[in-house]
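Table S4 entry, Protoheme IX farnesyltransferase.
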Amino acid sequence: MTTYQAQGEAEFGDYVALLKPRVMSLVVFTAFVGLVVAPGGMHPLVAFCAVLFIAIGGGASGALNMWYDADIDAVMRRTRARPIPAGRVSGAEALGLGLALSGLSVMMLGLAANWFAAGFLAFTIFFYAVVYTMWLKRSTPQNIVIGGAAGAFPPMIGWACATGGISLESLLMFALIFFWTPPHFWALALFMKEDYHEAGVPMLTVTHGRDVTRRHIFAYTLVLAPFAIWLGLTPVGGPVYLGVAVALNALFIWRGWQVMRRSDAQSNADGHRAEKSFFKLSLYYLFAHFAALLVQHWVAA
């Protein structure tokens, strides 16, 4: 791993960027939904603190990921402007920030909510920083499949904050994110294949080609749909959520089918239009499901 030294004066925004705020926003939202829809509820101030510490833990994971992946980030067009490869923040600073925030977030979540949730957060940080970043990402085309569990844990942590445990509902929220993650990232890889190839990341598009990746994307849309709809049949679901889930999954499967039927020649000719459209839809897909859970909860209250 290359050691990166800062070459200029870092600004506050550079340290915020280390925390991957866009990824953190998804962590915060799904954890918040998991906490709110859980039975029993929490005092609003305690709930706010719990979500805040989960967010800090998510940011810590991002900083540790950027520290270790700086050599990859320096090669890829999408990431070469990040603070470490751009020379604005040193690798040592990113590592120190990530470790400090990891310890702070876990300790404070334990004090604010419960130690089961805190331990779950600690495991999630470890899973993302060590299991995914240091091992899976560089060693197997299944990197995003197995590693996607890290991004799927936050609603379970939120649920654990409110209940002190795990349930079918929280497992289904996990499954919703877990099975959504591969088609989401593989769609991105379809039109960013060269970046992953140059960086030596064994993404499915690099190791098996785009045709295989397209078939995997469609297969995962089929696997994902039953879990998304099943969640609507649990106590946290209902007609509002079910209506959104059925409509969105029908659309997701249809778009996945369209992507699967395309050839490289068609994709190159129109600038990967269908792949980019599917990727954008995947962004709305997850947000809409968790927003529907919130609306369903408020309607039923």
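The mean pLDDT is 92.
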